[in-house]
Design brief:
This is Alcohol dehydrogenase catalytic domain-containing protein. The chain is an alpha/beta fold and 312 residues long. It has two domains: 183 residues, Medium-chain alcohol dehydrogenases, catalytic domain (Quinone Oxidoreductase, Chain A, domain 1, Alpha-Beta Complex), CATH 3.90.180; 119 residues, Rossmann fold, CATH 3.40.50.720. Helix content is 29%, strand content 26%. It contains ten helices and 16 strands. Helix 3 packs across helix 8. The protein starts with a strand and ends with a strand.
Length: 312
């Protein structure tokens, strides 16, 4: 069986043993390359099959997307709906430090599976995971009717956050670095920044991006930090102090008030097929994973979400 792993020579497609253990077996149909995957490859992280954004089918043809979070379901955080903050030592994510979905077949715990809405093709369903991240982030902002929303960043999480805000009925603008990202944002109904905003979503993950968030925020505004930072980050002091800004962190997704955010994201993608059509820019067969990762690294060349299709 073929699987995507990092090596001293970079990403390779290797022949590995088939999946074992208890759970449900899926033939993987689509696996997205996340910015986190690209960062891990560059840092030399090895020892597992990559891929935490993936979907596939069972032997009887049923289609599912995998919510890759591994959690106990019993600790106080889990019972409160914050499964992304599970306190169990075994808590983690498939495809991050443990085998994931960039492979031909996987065996996953049954509780990780979400049946796909009929209108969501399995080849697009790998987008549910980053869409759920975006859904959770917008939810953490608690936007109120009439408030203005802006997203700083032009990658897949940024565009999906804009799509979520639009889906929930808010006007939203996007500040992106590259023209193809700006064009994608406009196709999703987002405008370009003008004025100040009640809700600012940081999906850039850079000090300059966070500084821009503080500039765009209105007095008393909320900044949601969706960007991933590897080290200590500085809060833009002057704007934050004078405007009395509130910063809120958002990680992954959970079940607030008992509602599965993964399912809400899947329903949105099913209702709005233009989101996947816009955000997924490249598709490769599994054997071309090295080239797919190269394309995913080069955002200036037009890539937003790059997808591997093992069954292709």
């Amino acid at each position: 069986m073929l699987a995507v792993r990092n090596t001293d020579e970079g990403i390779q497609v290797q022949d590995v043993a088939g999946p074992e253990g208890s759970g449900v077996r899926l033939d993987v149909a689509s696996a997205g390359i996340c910015g986190t995957d690209v960062t891990f490859v560059a840092s030399g992280l090895q020892g597992f099959t990559y891929g935490h954004e993936f979907a596939g089918t069972t032997a009887d043809g049923a289609a599912f997307v995998v919510e890759p979070s591994i959690y106990c379901g019993r600790c106080p955080e889990c019972t409160a709906g914050n499964t992304q903050r599970c306190a169990d030592p075994a808590h983690g994510t498939l495809g991050i430090f443990r085998d994931g979905g960039m492979t031909e077949s996987v065996v996953v715990p049954e509780y990780t599976l979400l049946p796909l809405p009929a209108a969501l093709p399995v080849r697009d369903a790998c987008l549910v995971e980053p869409a759920a991240v975006a859904w959770h982030g917008v939810g953490k902002a608690e936007p109120r009717p009439g408030e203005r929303v802006v997203v700083v960043g032009g990658g897949s999480i940024a565009l999906l956050a804009a799509a979520v805000a639009r889906h929930l009925g808010f006007d939203v603008d996007v500040e992106a670095r590259y023209e193809h990202q700006r064009a994608a944002a406009e196709r999703l109904g987002a405008g370009r920044p003008k004025g100040d905003y009640d809700v600012v979503i940081d999906a850039a993950g850079s000090p300059s991006g966070l500084a821009r968030c503080a500039e765009l925020a209105a007095v008393g505004g909320r900044v949601v930090v969706l960007g991933v930072y590897d080290d200590t980050i500085g809060i833009p002091a002057t704007h934050s102090l004078i405007k009395e800004l509130t910063y809120v962190n958002a990680m992954a997704y959970g079940r607030p008030d008992g509602v599965r955010e993964f399912g809400q994201a899947a329903d949105m993608l099913a209702a709005r097929p233009e989101i996947a059509e816009t955000v997924i820019t490249h598709r490769f067969p599994l054997k071309d994973a090295a080239e797919a990762f190269r394309v995913a690294r080069d955002r200036s060349a037009g890539a937003i979400k790059v997808v591997l299709e093992p069954s292709r």
